[in-house]
Write a structure and sequence with these properties.
Keywords: Repeat, WD repeat. Pfam families: nSTAND1, WD40. This is Novel STAND NTPase 1 domain-containing protein. It comes from Streptomyces bangladeshensis. The protein has about 1500 residues and is an alpha+beta fold. Among the domains are: about 250 residues, 3-Layer(aba) Sandwich (Rossmann fold), CATH 3.40.50.1460; about 180 residues, Rossmann fold; about 90 residues; about 325 residues, YVTN repeat-like/Quinoprotein amine dehydrogenase (Methylamine Dehydrogenase, Chain H, 7 Propeller), CATH 2.130.10.10. It is built from 34 helices and 84 strands. The protein has a six-stranded mixed β-sheet, with helices on both faces. The chain has a five-stranded parallel β-sheet with strand order 13-14-15-12-16, with helices on both faces. The longest helix has about 35 residues.
Length: about 1500
């Protein structure tokens, strides 16, 4: 039997409380303390079984002596048990130590130490007691200091936590180290002790029969945090946690057969089965338990009825976790049986639910076999030969239509199906619905995860389903969620406590329910279902209670806690195997978020090093209902139960985040190895070239990787390596033979020499390709090596467009400048001097180094700066926690363990320390200067000071409390009059410090984060007008503090800057306050563009590679520095050299509500049309500000139903627009006297609104296209009316038309996504069809297309945030060269070629503009990061101006011009720039051999050390 608190003989219990204070004290009285002590005594006696004589109560000890005497006497008299329970004020002395208040305690300065009992005294008395069990309960402010190891640094950690390390000791505290305890006004008890009293006196229904110390702590955490109160803390040693404190008075014997947290025996459990599905989807059998979706099911039936008539599939879209599968399984299918579709005979139609799996054709064949008896193998063969035969196969021997629900349609892309089978599957489904078949034979419903929409849109056959009102599964209304919670329990005869319903609604919506709709985050729905199923398992009464729910950990923790339990049940080897196994069950893709994948169990076990351990993992996670296994024997499949586990379980999320690129490569390697083995080890499937180099580099990065691969993968990799070696030997033999032949046969010498040169050239090219592949893999993780490899590859093979383009991408997308290694310890602070020439870096070992970074690529240690002649200057007593340069650069402030030292850096080669300001007691953790350098703000853990350096005795002080992991943050305005502080909670305070005291500027600023997240960084702009605040939740908020009495939240549309994976560790404004540098613990530094209208993250962060602990930006130089947990300091080039720059302010004039537009160029004129009915015209011949001409108003008012249309003739003398009152007519305008005037009668021939205009380069032909797809070619001569010479037709509308530079080719694109190419060189002027491209781009108003000047290359923008390049040299045999993800959100709505065809510009609807080098046509590469201009919104149209040095981009209401003059031309030599970045450092010979093999060594940066 477990030991009980009341069983101890010789027990001594001391209850001390200070609630009333005398005239000596400045502390407020707390009336609840006295009542709490009285009730605690009764609790310990009546509920815990302790003798009344053993309990001593001390009310309001008069002084430290009286308090200490009571503690000492209790400790001396204790034999079996010593328990000290204190209630009252907790105080923190200036040295950071915890003190317990007496009646006469004073909270100011050093008087705390003499008027309150130091916790160290209590600790020593308790630790010295002879009692076998020792318990301390502290119900006071800042009590967490008693259990927070390291709170005051290494020298205090032993003293503070020594008690907890003595066997048989427990310390339980009401709060954390920086948090006040609470005594709500009017309550009988303090918050913490009151919760303890309620737990032990009233009990916990459905709880355990007894409360141990462990269970008491757990329940207090759950109940107090659920009520929004501080979280209790605990320190424990030995097995004291199992000590029974009291019986649970709410426990009943009926519960004894099934403890709440134990699995129930089905044979003895009389309760009904759980009505909640957890993470499983509802099926047709669960109809009676499915509630809350009546409205959606009704809408689903309406849409499906329309599809039955239209002959198209119905697409059901929604995010992961929205409940799509459940709506179809338990909502739609039962409704069909009930005849609610209201289509004759539909109630008797057969219904099937399938998922694509890795063999989608086999899935359809199995359906055919089940329904008609046709053998599956025969059906599959016929489907592959003719996908349209699916409908015919379904009609074999039957008449009725089939209702086919394709659930988890995304499996088509992530289960390994071939491209051919995917196409067969899609075409078979579409034709069976009536799309192209004689009669519909199936009603098809496609259930698609929303983030796979773009992948589906690539199939033209799915356009009707995706574009014509797909059904989106949205979040449920509040009343619907209420039904989903309460009604399933009612079905089986139980109820849900109304209080629990409110708690669940609040937790699901995170307090954000709206009284109207009440939307929540849809992906949280599975967590609610899982929490309900877990609550059911823990509850045994007639009603599910809040207590049952709290024991699960709640919505946010139930799933994660169950996964933790499953993982913890395994040994160390099993946990490592679990990591490998679970990652194998995740599908990784560059384009979408990770998703679960289904694998055959045998295949999965064979892919892991230890199949027995893997089976144990499957058993553990299967028992926890986190992995499902379907089928039996060789057909058994395994799958993670829901994608929610990937999002919510922090362990799996961390594994995925750790090395996603490496995991993706490993998954591909394993899949390719299995495919190789399945095809009898076909040599053609082995890796070669870049894929082999990438796999070998991945394997070499960790010596444990290859041994951890399954045998087949090791053999696959080894076979590829052996084949490459054989080829090299053959090549070397050929080379040798040729050399011998050259010597032996003089007459054949010339040929042999040529062949040898060719062999050497091929060897160099092969090595260059391998280096390019590795460089692109390393670009983020090791930018220096990536740059060295890229430069070496370009040196080896300079004529290859791929090596140059790859190097150009590295130079323009990486800001890496240099690394400083070898610190031997983690950098604790870094700071760049204002001029950017000197770097100061401090490390945790107490060293401070100064570096000359005038040449950023070659930093030099300033050795004369070391005071003691060692490698570093050691500070007094410990690490430097903060560094700040005075704005003139002549002094550096360094915050030490208990002091602040000023370093005189007027001679930067010999910095000298001045006498430190000391006596702070705790480390100086933050520093900030005023602009004139006369005031310095500094923060310690408990005090913020503003010092006048002319007289350090004059200062302003502020008290605060912070813990080591929630350090205080501060910023000082340039004028030194505004101080900003963040004290470790989620608020920020502004202080007026113009006088001798700090005065609050209003209440604290509202929290940045939606969740409670401490402030971890603050920064003020250089003009003091903008404040940025970063939090532990990875968010950044902005405020305008120009009016310091009324700060204003900036960017109301963007409540916070979200996107970091971990907490913000540093902030700094740069580039004239137009850029914010955001350092994060996730190892990255984000660069956010800041303007008056908003802020935007750039698409490529700086990747330090480990948690960034500090960041600094030079005030007067484009240089930044980061210090990381990996012991490295990295310099970053913040300049935009070689990148596009804005060329002046936007060209404005369109209506601000314009939504579509088009640009055209004619001679020196640029024209912009929009749906406001105006064409704006500018003369752009000069590089100075373009000159505006009078606008052409061709229609009055804004009419979005009439898209804009206009085009300037090549000479700029004519303009074509749609008609003013009739948008089907073409109006021509002629330039004259500085403006355009309409000429002639409008041209007729179109019957729907015009959408596109294009002039031939010679200006003699005009092409117009309309919404019905009619394209007319007009011959336009110098005089006389234009004549229609040809009419072309595009299905579903004509959206764009463009001529090649020669005018011999015309490209048009229609709403069906097909691009047609026409020969326009005929004398008759009639186009001749040449063929075309099925781009997969479904037509809409933002479809985009561009033709290269030579007419041989076609670029098409896609809705899937990508663009493709097509070789249309022979249009009849057009082939796709590349499809490139632009890395942004939404369709590519604008695209253009440069005049020389070497570049492509793309614009996405998220406002991103990206420039691409397409000289290597098989792989476009970026030129610099994405460009944003919130001044114009998202790009609608773009074109390069003559010469290609400027790019015009039309936005919503204006046009932006970008200067491209600094972007390197295609023929520019990039090696000088690369070598300058590297400081002249080529790859050394060892690195060359590792990456280039036997290829002869070449010095990349000539004239420098290799």
């Amino acid at each position: 039997m477990a030991a009980r608190l009341g069983d101890h003989t010789g027990a001594s219990v001391l209850l001390v409380g200070t609630g009333r204070h005398d005239e000596r004290s400045d502390l407020p009285d707390v009336a609840a303390v006295s009542r709490t002590l009285v009730d605690l005594r009764e609790m310990y006696v009546e509920r815990c079984g302790l003798p009344r004589s053993a309990v001593t109560v001390v009310h309001d000890p008069a002084n430290v002596e009286a308090f200490g005497q009571a503690v000492a006497e209790a400790a001396e008299s204790a034999e079996g048990l010593l328990l000290v329970h204190y209630v009252g004020h907790g105080l923190v002395a200036e040295d950071g130590t915890l003190h317990l208040a007496t009646a006469g305690s004073v909270s100011r300065g050093d008087r705390v130490r003499f008027t309150a009992l130091p916790y160290d005294v209590l600790r020593a008395c308790v630790a010295g007691s002879a009692a076998g069990a020792r318990i301390v309960v502290l119900d006071c402010c800042y009590s967490g200091l008693a259990v927070a190891s390291g709170t005051l640094g290494p020298d205090r950690a032993d003293a503070v936590t020594g008690l907890a390390r003595i066997a048989g000791a427990l310390v339980l505290t009401a709060t954390g180290g920086s948090t006040p305890a609470l005594a709500p006004q009017g309550d009988r008890h303090t918050a913490f002790s009151g919760a303890l009293l309620r737990l032990l006196t009233t009990g916990l229904p459905g709880g355990p029969p007894v409360f141990t110390l462990d269970e008491v702590h757990r329940q207090l955490v759950l109940s107090l945090t659920a009520a929004g109160l501080p979280k209790p803390r605990r320190a424990l040693s030995g097995d004291l946690g199992g000590l029974v404190v009291a019986d649970n008075p709410a426990w009943t014997p009926a519960e004894a057969a099934s403890p709440p947290d134990a699995p129930r025996d089905p044979g003895h459990d009389t309760r009904p089965d759980c009505p909640y599905k957890g993470l499983d989807a509802f099926t047709q059998d669960d109809e009676r338990l499915f509630f809350g979706r009546d409205r959606l099911v009704t809408e689903l039936l309406t849409r499906l009825r329309e599809c039955a008539m239209d002959g198209r599939p119905l697409a059901v879209l929604g995010p992961s976790g929205a409940g799509k599968s459940s709506v179809l399984g338990a909502g739609l299918l039962p409704a069909l049986v009930q005849g609610r579709l209201r289509v004759a005979g539909s109630a008797w139609w057969p219904r099937r639910v399938v998922t694509p799996t890795g063999d989608p054709v086999g899935v359809l064949a199995a359906v055919v076999e089940e329904l008609t008896g046709t053998p599956a193998e025969q059906a599959a063969a016929r489907l592959r030969a003719d996908p349209g035969s699916f409908g015919t196969l379904l009609l074999t021997g039957r008449q009725e239509r089939l209702v086919l629900v394709v659930d988890q349609f995304e499996e088509l892309f992530n289960e390994g199906a071939s491209e051919a089978d995917r196409l067969v599957f899609v075409r078979a489904l579409v034709t069976a619905t009536g799309g192209g078949s004689p009669a519909p034979t199936a009603l098809v419903v496609l259930c698609v995860r929303a983030d796979f929409y773009d992948r589906c849109a690539a199939f033209p056959e799915l356009a009707p389903a995706l574009e014509n009102r797909p059904l989106t599964v949205r979040a449920m209304r509040q009343e619907e969620v209420r039904d989903a919670i309460t009604k399933p329990a009612a079905v089986v005869g139980r109820r849900v406590d109304p209080d629990l319903v409110e708690v669940l609604l609040n937790d699901l919506g995170e307090g954000g329910w709206d009284t109207g709709e009440g939307w929540y985050e849809p992906g949280r729905l599975p967590l609610l279902s899982y929490a309900l199923s877990e609550t059911w398992e823990r509850g045994a009464g007639a009603a599910l209670s809040v207590a049952d729910y709290l024991r699960t950990g709640g919505i946010s923790r139930a799933l994660s806690d169950r996964a933790d339990e499953a993982l913890d049940s395994l040994d160390e080897a099993g946990r490592d195997c679990a990591r490998r196994l679970l990652l194998r069950l995740v599908h990784l893709d560059e384009d979408t978020v990770p998703t679960r994948r289904r694998l055959h169990r045998d295949r999965l076990l064979a892919s892991l090093p230890d199949p027995a351990a893997a089976q144990a993992v499957l058993d553990a996670f299967g028992a926890a209902r986190l992995i499902t296994q379907d089928g039996a024997d060789s057909h058994a499949t395994v799958q993670i139960v829901h994608d929610a586990l990937l999002r919510e379980w922090h362990v799996l999320r961390g594994w995925l985040k750790g090395d996603q690129a490496g995991l993706l490569l490993e998954h591909r390697l394993l899949d390719d190895a299995e495919r190789w083995a399945a095809r009898d080890r076909e040599p053609g499937l082995l890796y070669d070239g870049a894929p082999l180099a990438a796999a070998e580099h991945w394997a070499a990065a960790d010596p444990d990787r290859v041994p951890g691969l399954p045998p087949v993968a090791q053999e696959f990799l080894a076979a590829g390596t052996r084949r490459r070696r054989r080829r090299r030997r053959v090549r070397n033999l050929v080379t040798t033979a040729l050399a011998l032949l050259l010597v032996a046969t003089a007459t054949a010498g010339g040929l042999a020499y040529q062949q040898r040169r060719e062999a050497l050239r091929e060897a160099r090219a092969s090595a260059a390709r391998s280096m390019v592949s590795k460089a692109e893999l390393l670009r983020d993780s090791d930018p220096r090596l990536a740059l060295q490899l890229g430069a070496a590859a370009h040196r080896l093979d300079p004529d290859n467009p791929a090596t140059r383009a790859s190097l150009h991408e590295t130079l323009t997308t990486s800001r890496y400048a240099a690394s400083l290694d070898g610190f031997g310890d983690e950098p604790t602070a870094v700071a760049l001097s204002p001029d950017g020439r000197t770097l100061a870096a401090a490390t945790a070992d107490g060293r401070l180094r100064f570096w000359d970074v005038t040449r950023a690529a070659r930093p030099k240690l300033l050795k004369k700066a070391w005071a003691r002649g060692t490698a570093g200057a050691r500070t007094a007593g410990g690490a430097v926690s903060a560094l700040a340069w005075r704005p003139d650069g002549k002094f550096l402030a360094a915050g030490g363990p208990r002091e602040m030292t000023l370093w005189d850096t007027s001679d930067r080669r010999a910095p000298k320390p001045r006498s430190p300001l000391s006596g702070f007691g705790t480390p100086v953790v933050a520093l900030a200067w005023s602009a004139d350098g006369t005031r310095l703000a500094m923060a310690t853990l408990h005090v913020t000071l503003l010092i006048d350096l002319d007289d350090p005795r004059v200062y302003i002080g502020l008290r605060h409390e912070s813990e080591p992991y929630d350090l205080p943050r501060l910023a000082l305005s340039p004028d030194g009059d505004l101080l900003v502080t963040g004290d470790g909670d989620d608020s920020v305070q502004l202080w007026d410090v113009t006088g001798t005291k700090a005065v609050r500027r209003g209440p604290p600023l509202p929290p940045v984060s939606t969740e409670e997240a401490p402030v971890t960084a603050v920064a003020l702009s250089s003009d003091g007008g903008t404040l940025a605040v970063g939090t532990r939740a990875g968010e950044v908020g902005f405020w305008s503090v120009r009016n310091r009495r009324a700060p204003e939240r900036l960017y109301p549309r963007y409540s916070s800057y979200v996107g970091l994976a971990d907490q913000v560790t540093g902030l700094a404004f740069a580039d004239g306050d137009t850029r914010l540098v955001i350092a994060s613990q996730d190892g990255t530094v984000q660069l956010a563009q800041v303007s008056g209208s908003g802020f935007e993250r750039t698409d490529r962060p700086l990747v330090h590679g480990a948690a960034v602990t500090s960041v600094s930006v030079a005030a007067r130089r484009d240089l930044a520095v980061t210090g990381g947990a990996d012991g490295r300091v990295v310099l970053w080039d913040m300049s935009d050299r070689g990148l596009p720059r804005p060329a002046g302010a936007p060209l404005a004039g369109h209506h601000p509500r314009s939504t579509v537009g088009h640009l055209s160029l004619g001679g020196s004129l640029l024209a912009s049309s929009a749906d406001d009915g105006k064409v704006l015209v500018w003369d752009v011949s000069a590089r100075a500000r373009p000159q505006a001409l009078p606008p052409v108003v061709y229609r009055r008012g804004t009419d979005v139903s009439a898209p804009p249309g206009s085009a300037l003739s090549p000479d700029g003398r004519r303009l074509a627009t749609s008609g003013g009152t009739d948008s089907t007519q073409v109006v021509l305008w002629r330039a004259g006297r500085g403006s355009f005037r309409a000429e002639g009668a409008p041209l007729t021939g179109h019957r729907s609104r015009l959408q596109t205009f294009a002039w031939s380069p010679d200006g003699r032909r005009l092409v117009t296209g309309d919404a019905e797809g009619v394209v007319i070619v007009w011959r336009v001569s110098g005089s006389g009316a234009p004549v229609r010479t040809a009419t072309l037709k595009h299905p579903r509308g004509a959206f764009d038309a463009v001529f090649s530079a020669s005018g011999r080719r015309l490209a048009t694109i229609g709403g069906d996504g097909k691009v047609s190419l026409w020969d326009m060189s005929g004398e008759t002027g009639r186009p001749r069809g040449l063929g075309g491209v099925d781009s997969g781009q479904m037509g809409n108003r933002r479809s985009s297309m561009a033709l290269s000047p030579d007419g041989r290359l076609l670029a098409v923008g896609h809705t899937s945030a990508s663009f493709s390049l097509w070789d249309v040299t022979d249009p009849a045999r057009a082939r796709r060269l590349a499809r490139t993800d632009v890395g942004h959100i939404g369709p590519v709505g604008a695209i253009a070629f440069s005049p020389d065809g070497s570049r492509v510009a793309t614009g996405s609807v998220d406002g991103a503009l990206v420039l691409w080098d397409v000289t290597d046509r098989s792989r476009p590469r970026r030129i610099g990061p994405a460009l944003y201009s919130r001044r114009i919104g998202f790009p609608l149209s773009m074109l390069f101006l003559p010469g290609g040095r400027r790019l015009a981009v039309q936005g919503i209401s204006s046009v932006d011009l970008w200067d491209l003059s600094e972007v390197a031309s295609p023929g520019a030599d990039l090696l000088p720039e690369a070598c300058a970045r590297l400081g002249g450092a080529s790859l050394d010979r060892a690195a060359w051999k590792a990456h280039a093999g036997e290829t002869a060594y070449v010095t990349t940066c000539r004239g420098a050390d290799g």
